[in-house]
Amino acid sequence: MMTIQFCGAAREVTGSSHLLTLDDGYTILLDCGLYQGTDEAFVNFNRQWGFTPSQINCVVLSHAHIDHSGRLPMLCRDGFEGEIICTHATRDLAMTMLMDSALIQERDAAFLLKHLGSQYDKDKHDPIYLPEDVNKCFEQVVSIGYEHWYQIKPGVEVLLRDNGHILGSASVTLRITGKKGKTHYIGFTGDIGRPNRPILHDPLPMPPCDVVICESTYGDRLHESAPNEKEKLLNIIVDTCLRHKGKLIVPAFSVGKTQEIVYMLDVLQHQGKLPKIPVYVDSPLATNATNIFQMHPECFDKETTEYMRIDPNPFGFNTLTYVRTIEASKRLNYSKEPCIIISASGMANAGRVKHHLYHNIQNRNCTVLFLGYCSPDTLGGIIKSGAKTVTIFDEVKKVKARILSMDSFSAHGDQQEMIDFLDNQKRPQLKHLFLVHGEYAAQQVFKAALEATGFNSVHIPELGETVTLELS
């Protein structure tokens, strides 16, 4: 008998964290993510634990995105002393991303202290961890390769398999052998990637499992097809930057979408199709992450590997500039030149892109292009919903810029792609299928779709819910 406690990303699309307790009391935490959003119901999520960190024996990290890794330094600081297991690329990316997160928290706290004065609340506004906590945390990281059964302890092994979501991302399969010699397989999909996307390998299915914890972000929809993706992007660039002489602002996550769109622009430039206009990647984290991408060509698919024979740097071309300094970023806000600005964050809830939106969202000649999912309560989600006005830095702005989306860039599989990912699971063997990392309405649609394809015992857990697994 074992239990799963759903400690995050339950009927939500952020804060991934699931605690597995084996029949001998050994505990494995799958992901330890940060909640990203402004929902009042989750105001204390990042500062509280639904368990005791010192009692966790092991963490398995599916990938480096902050909503999956973002509380690891806090976990270690608060008493966790075990191994953090992930892929080699995830280790490199997570180190960079968590250090960036710690520095942002420090800057935000300093800003609030200056502006709030005596109203500054340490319990509410202090960083949840510091850069030194990040360094200490990574002393506990053990990175392993794909397709290798790694022994966590006698009778418990883990397999990480490429699931094509971002560089280094993996599905997690636990092989657990009990005292009587019976072996059970517990699977966690992590965030399921998409087939036939640039740069990364296609997702590989997990081994058949007895229990699966499955993401469900796009469980209620299908993505637009990708064959004309580059042409659509090119048309948006031409219309915005050449016809209207405006700026194309692209909110993009620093890891994954930034590299994908830069790669696509690189190909267009190599083909002689990209207009000679400046392209800026305005994110120090994206710049560092791109360097890490170049360190891990083993994660690239065949098409990208072959392209690198004619272009050794698929993330750089003559009109592309990676912007590091704040001063250079500010200059972009006041420049009148038509250009493309790719900047974090993808949901526009933080980072430099908020400043670019502040300065350009009221300009009819400009375009804001979203490349995937935005949580409804983030600035990006509000803009995508069709709002006529938005509040940015406490100032109300009219939305006059053209707002577009290209969901084909999404790093998350859609409903059919997730069903395809799960299709190798043996229905009679699969005793429990839990849906996490999705909004409840989307999960209900996905549950019905899974049941229509023969999956049984599909459950949508609530935050904090603990389920006992009876595995015979």
Layout of helices and strands:
Elements lengths: L1 E7 L8 E5 L5 E4 L27 E3 L5 H4 L2 H6 L5 E5 H29 L5 H4 L5 H7 L3 E4 L5 E4 L2 E7 L7 E8 L5 E6 L22 E5 L13 H15 L3 E5 L5 H14 L8 E4 L1 H12 L6 H6 L12 E4 L2 H9 L4 E5 L9 H8 L6 E4 L8 H6 L4 E4 L2 E4 L3 E4 L9 H8 L9 E5 L3 H13 L5 E2 L6 E4 L3
Parallel strand pairs: 3-4, 4-5, 5-6, 10-11, 11-20, 12-15, 12-16, 13-14, 13-15, 16-19, 20-21
Antiparallel strand pairs: 1-2, 1-22, 2-3, 7-8, 8-9, 9-10, 17-18
Q: Using the coordinates above, name the CATH class of the largest domain.
A: Alpha Beta
pLDDT < 50 stretches: none
Number of distinct helices: 14
What is the total number of structural domains?
2
Main beta-sheet annotation: 7 strands, mixed
Kindly report the CATH topology of the largest domain.
Metallo-beta-lactamase, Chain A
Helix content: 25-40%
User: Which structural class is indicated by helix and strand composition?
Assistant: alpha/beta
Query: How far apart are the first and last residues' alpha carbons, in Å?
Result: 9 Å
Structure report:
The protein has 472 residues and is an alpha/beta fold. The chain has 2 domains: 2-221 and 411-469, Ribonuclease Z/Hydroxyacylglutathione hydrolase-like (Metallo-beta-lactamase, Chain A, 4-Layer Sandwich); 229-409, Rossmann fold. Helix content is 30%, strand content 22%. The strands form 4 sheets. A 7-stranded mixed beta sheet has the order 6-5-4-3-2-1-22. A hairpin with a 5-residue loop joins strand 9 and strand 10 (183-188). The radius of gyration is 22 Å and the shape is globular.
